[in-house]
Amino acid sequence: MKTQSLKRRLAIWLVGVLSALLVVDAWLSYSDALKAANQAYDRSLSASLKGIAERIYATESEVVVDIPYSALELFEAGSSDRIFYSVGISGEEPITGYEGIPLPKRIEPNVAVFYDGLYKGQPLRLGALLKPLYRKEFPKPVLIVFGETTNARQEVVRQLFIGEVARKALLIVVALAVALFATMIAVRPIDKLGQAIRARPDDDLTPVDAVGVPREVEPLVDAINLHMERIAAMVEARRRFITDAAHQLRTPLAVLNTQAEYALRQQAAGDMRPAVEALHHSLGSAIRLTNQLLSLSRAEPVNGLMVTRQAVDLAAVARDMVVELLPLAAQKSIDLGVEGGAAPIVVAGHPVLLRELIANLVDNALRYTPEHGVVTVAVDLAPDRAASARIRVVDNGPGIPAEFREQVFSRFFRLDGSDHTGSGLGLSIVREIVHGHGGEIALNDAPGGHGLLVEVWLPLAGVAPDGENQQKA
Questions:
Q1: What is the span of the domain harbouring residue 282?
Q2: For strand 440-445 and strand 452-459, is the pairing parallel, antiparallel, or unpaired?
Q3: Which residue in 243, 356, 448, 462 has a CA-CA distance of 20 to 30 Å to 374?
Q4: Is 428 or 284 the better-scoring residue by pLDDT?
């Protein structure tokens, strides 16, 4: 399970970190133990050096070295170490003691120094003292070097080190156990959350309950809920599309089937023609309905077409659509025209959906405008709204009563007495596209009070729907 894997990773991480800390602490503990042992034993070295120095004096002809027994006695009782010493004029052969003992690199008169060295393969801890003789016959001082092997020191270091590391290791083991136990307790709500999500039915997209979840996990739960909301919206959009398609296409397909059967029953070609013409007309209506259903599905925000936008010249799109729909206007002798200058009016949006928006507005106007009517499309900068483009489609048709102007945006809504060849989806598609681009749409009476005026406002490129600047695609 994923949570078990998380527990293992946390345990491995904790063991690794605490082990590294133990290694570092062991090194520091060893250094401290060695320092403490040296400080203790160096006092004995210092006492021996001073005892020897006190018994050194010079006559007119020689330097007398009388090493007291007390200087050596400090290292003999019960000790497993050997001692080595050397006394002589600085820079000359020793007067007494061992030859070749390591000498200090730097030393000041009457100041004892301590250092480590190697003598005949044995590690030594040594002390040195420089004693001036204060006689003109012996201008150079006497160098006293006293050393011992490190067996006793190392034993003390081992005892201090092992005791310290054992205590630290015990503390780390206890801390690790507590940390692992706390981790298990902290991960338990995540286990319950995972089990609750796995136990859900496949179609359950309700928000996950965050009660009892650690505060650190709440952002994850919020993100899961947000994602589930998006999935639920997509599922609902698909369900709505399938339901609408099944409901709206059932009747046209049944009509097509009936008309085809009627045409097949006719024997003479002349008798078939009216049935085939009716079949052709019904087929065109079915195709238009299918295309509008697909356009409505694409225009819904959950389909993600609004996420990636690019700069689109709205004025150029309007001119292209007017030219494309001129044959439809010509069938009813409608005067279809476009107003506005040649200057581009650029918005950030999806070019295919913006074409669909204008196409549906103009198509609706042409369908409901009587023969020899007038339909005008205009695109300009909104005079009453900053950083917005405006699309206006004006016709001199029957218009829409004020009490129905909100209802006509509903799917499949058609006014009584209106052209029943329409599907009632045109303005629904338009509103979905407008809202997806962060715009607004309004229906009003046409100038003069006869006809319909549709106005659409869209943010210009570089202006986000919430008013913040955005990059042009």
A1: 218-299
A2: antiparallel
A3: 356
A4: 428
